[in-house]
Amino acid sequence: MTMWPQRMVYDGLDPKGTYVVRATGYKQALLRINGERIQPTLYGQKTGEIKEFPVPPELLKDRRLVLTWDPPVGEESLTWREHSRLAEVWLIKKND
Q: Are 52 and 20 in contact (CB under 8 A)?
């Protein structure tokens, strides 16, 4: 069972914009943008708490972002209720 989208693709983005990926869910979310692992600035792990990942400006040069997630670490022996899962994902353009 998987609780992750295969990928999310955003096209036509402003290459000079400032973006953040915001997500909610439960426990781990190991985000990659265009194949590069992104470190969060917020990392709530309880249901409803927010995780935020700033988008590095150099990843916007092609005006396209592809979001993927690595499998959570160390959950092989857990029941499905204890597994990490993703509930919502937003790509937010910040006002400069």
A: yes
Residue 42 falls within a domain, yes or no?
Answer: yes
Contacts for 89 with CB less than 8 Å, ≥ 6 apart: 5, 8, 21, 22, 23, 67
What is the model's pTM? Answer: 0.90
Three-state DSSP class for residue 57: helix
Per-residue pLDDT in tens (0 to 9) along the chain, 96 residues: 556 788 999 999 999 999 999 999 999 999 999 999 999 999 999 998 999 999 999 999 999 999 999 988 888 888 888 888 899 999 999 986
Structural domain total, the chain: 1
Alpha-carbon distances of 83 from 51, 74, 76, 86, rounded to whole Å: 17, 10, 9, 10
Q: Name the CA radius of gyration of the chain, rounded.
A: 14
